[in-house]
Amino acid sequence: MPGTTLDAIATPALILDVARVDRNVTRLRAHLTDLGVAFRPHLKTAKSVDVARRLFPDGWGPITVSTLAEAEYFAAAGATDITYAVGLAPDKIARVGALVAGGVDVTVLIDTVEQAQALGAAARDGIAMPAVLIEIDCDGHRGGLLPDDAVVIAIAEALRAGGIEVRGVLTHAGESYACRGGVGLPEAAEQERAAAVAAAGRLRARGFAAPVVSVGSTPTAHFARMLDGVTEVRAGVFMFFDLVMHGIGVCAVDDIAVSVLATVVGHRADKGWILVDAGWMAMSRDRGTQRHPVDQGYGLVCDIDGTPYGDLIVADASQEHGIVTVRPGSDATLPMLPIGTRVRILPNHACATGGQHDAYRVVDSGGRDVIATWPRMRGW
Amino acid sequence: MPGTTLDAIATPALILDVARVDRNVTRLRAHLTDLGVAFRPHLKTAKSVDVARRLFPDGWGPITVSTLAEAEYFAAAGATDITYAVGLAPDKIARVGALVAGGVDVTVLIDTVEQAQALGAAARDGIAMPAVLIEIDCDGHRGGLLPDDAVVIAIAEALRAGGIEVRGVLTHAGESYACRGGVGLPEAAEQERAAAVAAAGRLRARGFAAPVVSVGSTPTAHFARMLDGVTEVRAGVFMFFDLVMHGIGVCAVDDIAVSVLATVVGHRADKGWILVDAGWMAMSRDRGTQRHPVDQGYGLVCDIDGTPYGDLIVADASQEHGIVTVRPGSDATLPMLPIGTRVRILPNHACATGGQHDAYRVVDSGGRDVIATWPRMRGW
User: Fold this and answer.
1) One-character DSSP codes across A32-65
2) Residue A314, H or E segment
3) Distance between CA atoms of A318 and A316, rounded to whole angstroms?
4) Residue contact B143–A281, C-beta within 8 A
5) What is the pTM of this model?
6) Among the four given CATH numbers 3.30.230.20, 2.40.37.20, 2.20.28.10, 3.30.1440.10, the one describing domain B257-375
7) Among A269, A281, A317, A282, which residue's Cα sits nearest to residue A296?
8) What are the residue boundaries of the structural domains of chain B, listed by start?
9) What would the pLDDT profile of A246-272 be if each residue is shown by its tens digit?
10) A263: contact with B, CB 8 A cutoff
11) Nearest CA among B97, B88, B152, B87 for reference residue B124
């Protein structure tokens, strides 16, 4: 029937292999169960209630989000335990309060006394208060405070003065993305764990219960060998994986669940180019493998069934054109792909490529039937 | 009133300065009028009927689009003369035919005999036919045929055999983006003109009327000194401009009409960082100035009224975090921007940053009032 197989739907389109999603989820959940920690998946990659249902087939568990729009969207779908894992802007407190007033257990993230004071002022104005995690820097990657920074205690005291719950600490091993082929990831995971546990210990020594010790990144979540003292792990891109995660050493190409279906629209035999109708608007501008040992361009090209051709990549992209070539340095030959041929392109970065699309067209491994269309949310 | 000024709307948000849009449009239109050619603006950057109204205050003129979804969206709003300037996939012919059957004068782009034959087959199936432009390569940038390639004539003959109108030729000087500071742009414009005119001449020598000779890119459109033989010019990003166009030498920073409003959410004084709530999801992953003499990171930071702080850029970005620093090598000092401060970030690439947002919040130069909200379309 037209429109219901990968041979027939309009291109470019975002394709999700749900069997691979289920496999990726099962693997990480089993690992975290072995380590004795709770799991709080990050839904910033998926941005989809339907994908969330694969994580929580028996009802909502705790989740992480990156925007208040995500929090509102998942709360409307039934989520009741949400950590908003981006530093809280004071002018977003009212929106957080509305979620809390609606019965959602929201946890926010701060790393300055000013933010704690802004929460205190909002509490005095009658806004319902979220719980708070203090952001800890474990590797110099982004925000947060060093575990022994006196500001950690100052924030906790400011929160206590405002009658606001100090729920604990949160850190994110963003520098784990600089690892390649798995090397250094167990150590990055231990560094992440140790920083968070140390900070929680300092809070507890000052009389704060700090029941939550939250760590997480997809690479460290998979390579952690021991998580003593940690209460929960966050990870998001692991559901889909991508070429960056493959380069870091966290997954095989065969684990990548998301791809962009495209159609061949031209050739430049003189240049060794095949032109497809997936440019950067469909792939995103993410060039996350640019400095990896294997640069995947804008994506690795597979046949319509998801089997890579080999060293065939989207080497360059315009808004709606992808230029497919053999990877520079490879001795592979350019396959003959006639005009109209459909290909699937594995992305560098699932979060970024997903953000370019309004829906997933869902397939089961090995099949071309589109078994469902799952909308994605966006915005802030 | 809350929600109606740049001080109050939720961040991140895409801001459009409509006075700058009008100024940019007036400038290019005057230049093309001087050169005696028609103007067919490309709406892939704006993707907005409201922006199109600034181009056509007295009723729709000819437009260019990059997707069939854009063609359908603008046709629904009244556009009747649309060039779809991406190589036509055979399985998109039926959608084109539906637009033609609905009364829209659609022109499509091809550069292979296979595409001409696919159109012929569709015509025999009773699908309403668009007019066709043959894509010419003027600078080796992407698709198209060299002006003297025998395939140009073979395509035209295949179209004639199928009873389909050969409307002419189209080329795009994509390599003009490699110029810096304006150097080489008049020459690139002349090369673009000459290639298109030569190809049209060959078609006419074989008895094809080829009434349309279409050229265009924002850099060459502004730097062309003579366009004899050209009938129309296409350009899109000029409406908004961006830091890439500034680096190429086509506009001043003060001409850039689009920016992302963001809020300061953290500091890392030890690292010289200010954290804002606009990451790559709000800015896009576009790093188009990466190889320019002045690398703008993910964007140039201005105050809420749009005045640049100087050498302050978004040096790195996560999904929802931007890391603002002084540009490496600059002796500027990091300004003290308290938590909650609002800034405006000029993007590298207006087409890519626009694609991350669902709407423009519209301001008039110098004012903080949001005078309108203009939706953007997306998808394919």
Assistant:
1) HHHHT-EE--BTTTT--HHHHHHH-TTS---EEE
2) strand A308-317
3) 7
4) no
5) 0.97
6) 2.40.37.20
7) A317
8) 36-240, 257-375
9) 999 999 999 999 999 999 999 998 899
10) yes
11) B97
